[in-house]
Each structure stands twice: as C-alpha cells, then as structure tokens.
Amino acid sequence: MAEQPELMVLTGANAGKRFAVGEKGIRLGRSSANDIHEDDLGLSRTHCIFERDGESGVAVIDLASANGTFVNGEQLGCDRRVLKPGDVVEAGDVRLRVMGAAAQPSPARGASAVDLGLGASKSGAAPAAKPAAPRKPAHAILLVAVAAIAIAAVAVLFFAPVPGELGTSGEGEAAAETVDELVSFEYEKVDATASRLFRYDMTIDGASGMLHVVCDDVPVADRHIDKSAKLDPDAVARVMRTLDECGWEGLDDSYAGSPADGGNALRLWRMRAVRRRTDGSRVKEVVVENTVEPVQFSKIREALEAFSKNELGIWAVEYSVDRLLELSAQSAKLGDLKFSEKDVEYGNLSAAIDAYKEALFYLETVNPKPASFDVIKTNLKSAAVALDEVFQDHRILADKAMGLGNWDEARRELRILCALVPDRRDPRNVAASENLVDVETRSESEEKGGSR
C-alpha cells in the first residue's frame, strides 16, 4: 500500500479542490487539455507537470514556461524538484500545496528525469520493468504511450454489439444495398526527439459527427491547439470517400524502419478506421514508423490534414512564430488606423474590432505571448465600448423618431445603425434592418394617403 500524494489548489477557479498525483502525473496550464486548467494569462498553455517520485513522493518539472514555476518562493528553473508535504508551488497566479493522502495501492515507480521517454534517463534511474520482460527500445516506449489511449477507446467500439448490422443469413439471397457507415476514425502524427515533441491527433466520432483536433509542439514552441466542430453528414462521407479513393484497404497494417538519432527519435503516423459495412469489415489500423510513407498513405494523410484545418480554421499551425507575429502586427496596425478614423465612417469601429480579433487569432498558438498581446486586448475592449456607446446613442434617436412618426429621421438613424454594425448575422443589425423595413413600409403608406 503506497501513499498517493495530493495537491490542493489554494487560489484560482479550482481553489479548494484536491488532485491526486497518479502514475500518469498531473499537468497544470492555461489549456483545457491539462488536468488542472486555469484561465490565467500568467500561465503557459502547458506550464508544468507534477509526477510521482518513488512510491509516495511527488516532483515538479517546469515545461519551459514563459513566466516560470516557483517552489516556496524560489524559481525552479529547468531542474526537476522533489517536493515534500507542505511545499507551496506557484505558477502564474495559481498556488498549490503538496498534501498527504490515505494509503492507496499503486505500483512502484522510479524517479525520472526531464525526458520525452525516447532515451535513457539523465538521472540514471530506469523505469520499473515487468519480470522476465525484455527491455523495450527507447523509441518504442513513446509509441506505446501515445497509442494506448486510442487503442482502449476503439476497443470499446470494436467489442460492443453493433445495432442493426446488415448481412445476416436470414435476409435471403437478394443483393442488399451496400451500407458503409463510419463509426470512428483517428489519425495521429508524432515527431519526437529528446528535446522536442510534436503531436497532431485528429478524431472523428461517426455517431455524433464531432471532429476533434489536438496539436502540441513542446517545449520549445510551447504551442497547443485543442478545437472541435460538428460535421455534417456530407463531410463525414467525404472522409470515407478519401479512404476508398486513395487505396486504404490495400495498405499493410505496419511499415517500420530504423529509428533515427541513435534510437532516441521517433517519427510515427497512425490511422485507425472503424466502419460498419455489409461485407463485415469493421476495423483497420495502419502504422508507419521511422520510414518513408507509402504513396497511398501520404495521399490520405495530406487530404485529411487539409480537411481538418479547413473545418476548424487551424491553418495557423503551419506558420512559423515569426510569420504569425508579423501577421498579427499587420492586423493590429489596421485596427489602430480604423479606430483612429472612427468619426470618418460609421463602419470603422466594427472594422477596427474585426482587425483586433484577427490580430489576437494569429497569436493564439504563440507562447510566450509578445508584449503586443495585452495592448491589442486593451484596444479591442476600447473599440467595443466605443461602438456600444455610439450605437446606443443612435438607437435612442431612432426609437424617438419612430415614436413620433418622423419616418425620414427614423430611416436615417436606422441606416446609421446598420452601418455601425454591418455584419448581418449580428442581432443588432438584424433588429435595425427589420425596423428599417417597417419604417419604409409605413412611409410609403403615408405618401399614398394611407393611415399610420
């Protein structure tokens, strides 16, 4: 029975909550993908990780965060720090205390150094191995880790009974219409060395039509993307057509080569499709590891990467940080120009807001955030407040004119409202446009001698 350490959050949205540090460790950061998620700009997307040390201890590692991690007021730096009960860890505005816990059964685990699991531990302590099991190559350890979750999830789908499955013997000899339904699909790409890990994971749930993409590039770039979108049935059908047209069924299950960089590097592509078909084919997985992709596999991969980026608008991940900073600066400059000319044209405030939002979008995956990030956020808020004030002033004038039956004045003010918020999807534009139609109708009625 080993004591399972706990962390108690002292400040932030999770204040008062306790988190047990299990064998997989606990990640803290701004991204919702972390075990402890805090919406704090002082945190990096993935700021630090707490991991088990021996049977009942806990250690903390800073993951190249922008603002650093502190233990009892002392900055951690790049070293792994073993903690003791009562220690206080600070990251951004979040403070956590190391707590003890009731004894819990858990396997022993040796201390590990700051490593991606691709090579020998710098601390010299090796992970515990099962008795009589051969030692796995370093690159295979990461492969097993990144594939375990996906395999477990798909296993549930694979062994569950399939409702309404076609092709049973009682249907007679008449040829039934071929049914091909996507149950689930996953595409994973891993490019890792001892100092960098890039992972791109795309999943599609056929039942709900949800597309989910998670992309991490750590620790150097500290870039993280986690986005989802609901696909329409045609989009899901396009995925299956891509598989068939590019020769999915003709691919072997595995393509393997020799690991690079002395065995401490991994380049992996993996695809798994679960399909419900009349011919009984249900699951196929293809893994390409440390070798050149087959042509058919490459075509499928490129098509699906383009598909997910178009559906979720995550094309920015393809650009370097320098290019994203340049694009953000250009958009921010346009926002400043439109804001300064807010009195020249009614639509300039909305244009400024759109430009500032675009500037922030370019910085979404950039960490640490540049100094311009806070400036753009402040300017965006100022432009939004200014637009709201001007809009309210003209709406009062429009309401007054409509109440008095002054249709010319009402028409003018309503047109100004539409110009202030030109986006026809905006509820303010919708309301002003509807009132404008009503005013035009009433005005024409009066000109023809009708009543109000």
**Through-space gap between termini:** 85 Å
Mean pLDDT: 79
Order of adjacent strands in the largest pleated sheet: 17-16-15-14-19-20-18
Largest sheet: 7 strands, mixed
Total of DSSP H or I helical runs spanning 4+ residues: 8
Helix content: 25-40%
Taking pLDDT < 50 over at least 5 consecutive residues as the criterion, the unreliable ranges are: 102-147, 149-178
Secondary structure category:
alpha+beta
Radius of gyration, in angstroms, nearest whole number: 29 Å
Shape descriptor reads globular
Q: Quote the beta fraction.
A: 15-25%
DSSP summary, beta strand count: 20
- Helix and strand string, N-terminal first? EEEEEEEEEEEEEHEEEEHEEEHHHHHH
What is shown here, in short?
With 452 residues, this protein is an alpha+beta fold.
Helix and strand topology:
Blueprint: E1 2-3, E2 6-9, E3 18-20, E4 26-29, E5 36-37, E6 48-53, E7 57-62, E8 69-71, E9 74-75, E10 81-83, E11 88-91, E12 94-99, E13 103-104, H1 138-159, E14 180-192, E15 197-205, E16 210-218, E17 223-230, H2 233-245, E18 254-256, E19 266-277, E20 283-289, H3 295-312, H4 321-340, H5 348-362, H6 372-404, H7 407-420, H8 427-447
Parallel strand pairs: 4-5, 18-20
Antiparallel strand pairs: 1-13, 2-3, 2-12, 4-6, 6-7, 7-10, 8-9, 8-11, 11-12, 14-15, 14-19, 15-16, 16-17, 19-20
Helix pairs in contact: 4-5, 4-6, 5-6, 6-7, 7-8
